[in-house]
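Fold Annotation — chain and its backbone
Encoding — discrete vocabulary of local shapes
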Amino acid sequence: MARIRPVPESEAPAEVRALFARNHELYGQVLNSTGVYAHRPGIQLGVKGLADAVAGSGLVPARLRFLLNVRVASLVGCPF
């Protein structure tokens, strides 16, 4: 459970509604991180831009990225 209450979809700022929709497409729900970052759309869009740039750079191979995701998930107690 997030320590900061995520912004409900119905209250999401217009700038981040597309990110909420994309979460639904990919995961079937809005991720807590998306809802929490929605409190500050400028920061959320900046973080997304950074993540997209890192993923799109090709500097981190896909297999390593997968292993990193699994490791980080285990560190934060995510069961997948």
Observations:
- The chain has one domain: 9-75.
- Residues 9-75 form one domain.
